[in-house]
Design a protein that fits this description.
alpha/beta, Glucose Oxidase, domain 1, 2 domains, 29% helix, elongated
Length: 427
């Protein structure tokens, strides 16, 4: 028999107002005024101030009279105009080209890029001859090589990527893709530029092209802030239940392209705020804490910093529920750490079986893919839940507010409240 008390007192359906407010929050967080909630134009600081203001307006409490927990890290940024043209055709940043997140500053009007063929990948002599002949045409900063990755699979693709990485240590490299880009954030800056270009944006049948490139990169030491609030228990308690979500995203690549981060993770941030709104009006048997983490996209930095510098003892956390990618749900949800904490997962499943909130709750093992990870590493029981549905936009300029269905936003909201009520019986 499970050690949980299965006296499931389900609350009535809570109405459908949460999704409307959630939509407004996501639309705001995705707007150009927030600059992709990253490190250009102070985007993440704007988001932090907005979230803290929402917590305060609701009536949440703050530890030590402040919602902020600041920390620092290095991050490579692209604060100014980004430009790329191929044979005179200007490409659209974010859609037709992106620079690697670790790209350094780079300015040239005549970078000659040569295509690497499949034969040259496997024939070292031919490859060496091509590099030598290209080098004779100009200085090393004036030449580079292109790899059309979408043409290869399996071992050929693996070898091509290894070769691209090797050449990238000494010269510019261009990667051609037939699929949409995914972008990221880097804490380092490489020596030579790496660009990804849509094959449809240039004549992919050619063996060489002339690139004009303007990249202004700055490696900066950035101060970010976790935003933390709580609602005290009905009666004084030393136990805590935590809801978390990261609010940061990729920010801007230059001044022309920004990454809205609608599903990842404006949607989770919006649900976090709705959970706070509920508990302000309905205090629980334990203290309910709301943690909005910064620096997740750089490597889970905000949650790692928190677990190294907790505001209250980690052992007093009954459970942490991390919300990331909450914008759909037509195909249900997946729960990371389900196999690590099977009893709690059974509680979640039992609630859903009874109430039919979601069409499916999938089980997944441990993974270091969101802010639950470092809590689990330090002994805190935690789940990371994400929605599944037709929207596949991720780390691209198309992850917008307009692409989100919010199909199961209310259902997840209600499921989480029921789950917390049951888990509160644990001790």
């Amino acid at each position: 028999m499970h050690k949980f008390v299965f006296l499931l007192v389900f609350i009535p359906l809570l109405g459908f107002g949460q999704v409307e407010q959630g939509r407004l929050t996501v639309e705001k967080l995705c707007s150009p005024a927030f600059h992709g909630r990253g490190y250009v134009n102070g985007g993440d600081s704007i988001a932090a101030n907005f979230i803290a203001g929402e917590f305060e307006k609701m009536g949440c409490k703050f530890f030590k009279n402040s919602p902020y927990q600041p920390f620092q890290f290095n991050v490579n940024t692209f604060p100014n105009r980004m430009f790329c043209s191929v044979n005179g055709k200007v490409l659209v940043p974010g859609k037709e080209f992106v620079v690697d997140p670790s790209c350094p500053s780079f300015f040239t009007d005549s970078l000659k890029i040569y295509r690497i063929s499949t034969e040259e990948i496997f024939n070292g002599k031919k490859l060496k001859n091509k590099i030598s002949q290209a080098a004779m045409s100009g200085s090393k900063t004036g030449i580079g090589f292109a790899f059309h990755f979408s043409l290869w699979k399996g071992d050929t693709l693996k070898k091509a990527k290894e070769l691209a990485n090797t050449l990238g240590q000494s010269m510019p490299v261009v990667e051609l893709f037939d699929t949409k880009f995914t972008w990221s954030v880097s804490q380092e800056q490489s020596r030579f530029p790496l660009l990804q270009v849509q094959s449809s944006a240039l004549d992919a049948s050619m063996d060489e092209w002339i690139f004009s490139i303007r990249v202004d990169a700055k490696l900066v030491n950035h101060t970010a802030r976790n935003v933390i609030a709580y609602v005290p228990a009905k009666k004084k308690s030393r136990k805590y239940f935590v809801f978390s979500a990261h609010y940061d995203h990729l920010g801007q690549m230059g001044q022309e392209a920004y990454f809205p981060g609608g599903n990842d993770n404006a949607s989770g941030t919006a649900l976090l705020l709705e959970m706070a709104r509920y508990y302000v009006n309905n205090p629980a048997e334990v203290n309910i804490v709301f943690m909005a983490f910064a620096g997740e996209e750089v490597g889970l930095l905000g949650s790692r910093y928190y677990t190294d510098n907790p505001i209250f003892p980690l052992k007093e956390i009954q459970f942490l529920f991390n919300l990331d990618i909450m914008g759909s749900g037509e195909e249900g949800v997946t729960v990371v750490n389900a196999t690590v904490f099977p009893e709690q997962f059974e509680v979640l499943k039992s609630i859903n079986d009874k109430q039919q909130f979601l069409p499916k709750i999938g089980s997944r093992g441990p993974a270091a893919n969101s802010d639950h990870y470092f809590f689990t590493q330090k002994g805190v029981p935690a789940f990371f839940m994400y929605t599944m549905g037709p929207n596949k936009h991720y780390h691209d300029v198309y992850d917008t507010y307009e692409e989100l269905s919010f199909n199961k936003f209310n259902s997840i909201y209600q499921l989480l409240i029921d789950f917390e009520k049951v888990v509160a019986w644990k001790r």
